[in-house]
Amino acid sequence: MRLKHRGFTLIELLVVIAIIAILIGLLLPAVQKVREAAARIQCANNLKQIALGQHNYHDSHKTFTPGVGRNGCCWGTWMVPILPYVEQDNVFKIYVNFGGLDPGSNPAPGTSGGPRYNGDPNWRVSSTQLSIFTCPSDTVAPWTASWLPAPMTKHNYVLNAGNTSFFQSPLPLGCTVGSAGCTPFLGAPFNWYTYGDTLYGGQDSPVPWTDGPTDPTKGPMGRPVTIQSIADGTSNTMMASETLQGQTPDNLQGFTWWGGAAGFTTYIGPNSSFPDVLVGGICGNTPPDPPCTTTGTTTFPRMAGARSHHSNGLNAAMSTGPCSTSRTRLTSTFGGP
């Protein structure tokens, strides 16, 4: 007797397909959560390595790295001197003229100047995407201006420039501490454009931190800070946090080879809708770019906030060292908008 083999009916097939679709729909969010958790862990580990690198640098030089070079702007940031301390010594050896000037920027008497971050051979460094400075939760988006010798890389970690602006002076600029509405500058583990009298920042100043200030109304840019001078204590002071790479090709958010994008201030809250103020730079302002403006005011001069794509907060490293890195909302330590 022959048995008849009964196949699936159309209805049965559709039910099976529907069940498979439901299972996939339930599985995908779980997979995404696992991937994001792994990315967040990698991002936190990157910050741990940066914090460890800063402390190893301090052991060798008795200070943390400069936030920016002694002449600000365009001759390198903390990204350069920390390279040997995050296993990037070969890249570091390529870079020349860190913190210097160039012939078009009023070099000091007796000096000839040198290349900026995009000059030869420095472009070979600033066009290198370094994984230790890149958060896997963000999308890599190089700066691709037509006049550059090669696309310059953006990264995802910035150093703490304090609670006001990159000028590291009371806000609004020129206000008297103690008066209504005046926010005092409370110090930072990294110096930046330490000039409180100008909106732009005196990027080509003839007063580098190696020579000391000659004008009492101005301060030296990028002067390295010792761990002993952190007045609030290292366990209460953030060292580094995250930032986002601007996705528009000419957006300089995340271009941490440049001083205007290599730090963050706590005056802007984490992941704030208030724009980063990239005076002297370029903003995209096209979603999914973070909010940004290139116009500074006395109330909101050059500054940038900590930003991240992670859910429920962002990663930050405290100044005590790598073991203190944690995921945090950072709300209690921020002021301003």
Kindly describe this structure.
The chain is of the alpha/beta class and 337 residues long. The chain has one domain (13-337). It is 18% helix and 7% strand. It is built from 3 helices and 7 strands. It has helices spanning 10-61, 89-92, 123-126; strands spanning 157-160, 238-242, 263-264, 276-277, 292-293, 314-318, 326-328. The strands form 2 sheets. It has a 5-stranded mixed beta sheet with strand order 3-1-2-6-7, with helices on one face. A hairpin with a 7-residue loop joins strand 6 and strand 7. The longest helix is centred in the first third of the chain and has 52 residues, at 10-61. The chain starts with 9 loop residues before the first helix and ends in a 9-residue tail after the last strand. 43% of the residues are buried.
Q: N-to-C SSE series?
A: HHHEEEEEEE
Mean of residue pLDDT values = 82
**Sheet with the most strands: spatial strand order:** 3-1-2-6-7
Number of helices, where a helix is a run of at least 4 consecutive DSSP H or I residues: 3
Shape: globular
Taken as a percent bin, the fraction of beta residues is 5-15%
